[in-house]
Design brief:
The protein has 9 helices and 4 strands, in the order E-H-E-H-E-E-H-H-H-H-H-H-H. It is of the alpha+beta class and 231 residues long.
Length: 231
């Protein structure tokens, strides 16, 4: 049994994508980040960066005490190693998938997140920030599109944790959509993953946990998420 501490954001989706694909037994514990659940002491005890997702694995491979893991990329790597799935055992293929997992964690996620923040959530429009992160988000999309040319998935012909990490960060912001016309390989790849039954189940969980997803944030939610007005 795995306890998944989760809220339906791109980083949260990464883990439900894996768990649904692998058919693992898990229980969702909602972490309502708009209400500040991520700052509660009981959550900080195993996720000290006050971010979700985080997991508690009650049946770790070593048979010992429950294993906690925070950071979405670390969780994907942990689950892949535990199950022997979605990460090749062949050394060169394995490191390629890990490279692209780290690429998403260091680039696609943070930069797309900043693009969304300054285009959608910032209390004032800052042209320099909007231009900077729009350019960087598009640069990263071009990197991904180039990588996908001639291959079914990011790290080759097999679906991997690299794909699970990147997929939720494509087309995130309905209120500030990025034109995906220049990226045909991403559109092909994204449609293929979207059609997978496990993907459908993972995103159904999101709607169950937060039926209000997509609605405008309240001032209190902005304070919790972005520190706007926090002291």
């Amino acid at each position: 049994m795995i306890d998944l501490h989760y809220w339906p954001t791109p980083n949260g989706h990464k883990v439900t994508l894996f768990l649904e694909e692998a058919g693992l037994d898990y229980t969702i514990h909602p972490v309502n980040i708009g209400k500040g659940d991520q700052f509660q002491p009981e959550f900080l005890a195993f996720s000290p960066n006050n971010k979700m997702p985080a997991i508690v694995d009650h049946a770790p491979a070593d048979g010992g005490a429950p294993q906690t893991v925070f950071e979405s990329g670390a969780i994907l790597l942990y689950l892949a190693e535990k199950t022997g799935r979605f990460l090749s055992a062949e050394p060169r293929k394995r490191i390629e998938a890990i490279e692209w997992l780290f690429w998403q964690m260091a680039g696609l996620g943070p930069m797309t997140g900043q693009y969304g923040h300054f285009n959608v959530y910032a209390p004032e429009k800052i042209p320099y920030a909007i231009e900077r992160y729009t350019k960087e988000a598009n640069r990263l999309l071009q990197v991904l599109d180039t990588q996908l040319a001639g291959r079914e998935f990011i790290a080759g012909d097999a679906y991997s944790i690299a794909d699970m990490a990147a997929y939720p960060w494509i087309g995130v912001y309905d209120k500030a959509p990025i034109d995906m016309t220049p990226y045909p390989e991403i559109r092909r790849w994204h449609a293929a993953i979207q059609a997978r039954p496990a993907t459908q189940r993972a995103y159904a969980k999101a709607r169950e946990v937060n039926p209000d997803a997509g609605k405008p944030l309240s001032e209190e939610e902005k304070k919790q998420l972005f520190g706007q007005g926090r002291r």
